[in-house]
Design goal:
Elements (H helix, E strand, L loop, with lengths): L7 H7 L3 H12 L3 E5 L2 E4 H18 L5 E5 L4 H12 L3 E4 L6 H10 L2 E7 H4 L2 H10 L3 E4 L11 H5 L16 E6 L9 E5 H15 L6 E4 L6 H13 L2 E4 L5 H11 L3 E4 L1 H9 L13 E4 L6 H10 L4 E7 L2 E8 L11 E5 L4 E5 L12 E6 L6 E2 L3 H7 L5 E9 L5 E6 L4 E3 L2 E3 L1 H9 L4 E11 L3 E10 L7 H9 L10 E4 L13 H7 L10
Parallel strand pairs: 1-10, 3-4, 3-5, 5-6, 9-10, 11-12, 12-13, 24-25
Antiparallel strand pairs: 1-2, 7-8, 8-18, 13-14, 14-15, 15-20, 16-17, 17-19, 19-20, 21-22, 23-24
Helix pairs in contact: 2-3, 2-4, 2-10, 3-4, 5-7, 9-10, 11-12, 12-13
Length: 527
Amino acid sequence: MEDLLVSAESRRIRRIALGDVLYRSAAKFGARVAIVDGDDRLSYRELDDLSSQFAHYLLESHPGRVQVATLCANSADMLVAINGIHKAGHVWVPINIQLDPAQIGYILRHAEVSCIVVDEAICQQPRIAALLGEIALPVIIACTDGGNADRTTLATAALGRPTALPEVDIDSQQPALIMYTSGTTGNPKGAVHSHASVYSAILANLSTFAFTDEDVVSGILPLFHCGQHVVAATAFAAGSCLVVARGFSAPAVIATIARERVSVLVGLPMMYGAMLADPQASMAAFSSLRLCIYAMAPMPRSLVNRIAETMSANIMLVTGQTEIYPVTMSFRPVQHPQRDANYWGVSTATCETAIMDEDGELLAPGEIGEIVHRGPNVMLGYFKDPAATEVVQKFGWHHTGDLGMIDDGGQLLFLDRKKDMIKTGGENVASIKVESTILGHPAVAGAAVVGLAHPHWSEAICAFVVLKAGASCSEQELIAHCRASLGKFEVPKAVKFIDALPQTATGKIQKHILRSQYADCFAAEVR
């Protein structure tokens, strides 16, 4: 029996490989538009052909399995490169274009990258050009205006090469990508995902989102993040059309929804807020929208209601992590008006979720502990870091570092990051609960809440607030606003107004910087 399971031919028949997703969709939806990139359009057949040609180029220049990085903004070229890397059986290393050159250099070296695809505009930045010259990597230019006669571009790499899917022996459990975390307190870690782990997330998302070949899906968020990447991969599996954008602009997105008849919009809560606040919103054509997906932050009930009234009543929160490919859980706020904005809902078809205590015991509904997951969408581990992998996968579950509880209805409530839970006067306070309350004030654009050392309370709650342009608000007004809906021990002892919240290049708030800068805030007082 074992002899039937070891041949390359047998593996090819039943393999799970990410490059096969596009190849199979092209066979079904060849002439359908796969990508809209500004005025450019690529059909499924064209995208499949170009990515196969790039795969053949990679196999000629790097015949063994190697890491290939992309340093690109959203574009059709980037999607050609990603799918070509997968078809070649190489390992994709996406790099956030907002990182500084030192961080980019760290990832390129740590991931042992053999070549890199770079947008022409990014490659021309002096510090990036100097870095690439220092590391001496082969460079393929993407999104070029044709003025790179002396350098390899995606177009020249594809020229004259076969459009057939390369015959490559790909094992379903071999690495498909190394995606680096944001590294809020140190160097980022590279989460290694197999073809099977990403593919399992795609399958779960097909049932969660119900994408079809009639859908037109937005590509506003960056493709170098797991969230937008898996949305794009899910769209291609379904035969949907993906409309990519280089960045977010409320007027541009509103116009794109109407022009391309976008049916699925994927964005952050602040993006939805900006669109609905735009003067064009009142006259906008949102009738094509059937699903509005949001992620990364809780959405105030007032914004949920406005989206439901103006854009679509089918609204969905989705969650995930770099280490466990999205989507892990989904929540429909319109269907659960009695549950607050911090609910994450229920797991997808391929993800199992539980609440665990410090000793590895699973907890009953109503009990608070760490949110843990297991399923085929979990990473293989951190690249070259077995110790960190062992910690995050102890007790046979993936540990998220998030605290939560499952209510009697089976819905998961997110409480806080473990490291951000505030202990004040013997009480535990979830920083996100206080932040959600502050964000409900009409003058507030952003907020971060931390616990700072206090001579009496052990830790005291301090809120850091960014006001909307032109808005005004006092510390006492915000504290009074919090008192109206929070317990006495949950109300901030101080509010600091700042111009901007410190963030990583992926948009995560760096609370450790606030804790460090304001460590002595309460040193001389007792409240």
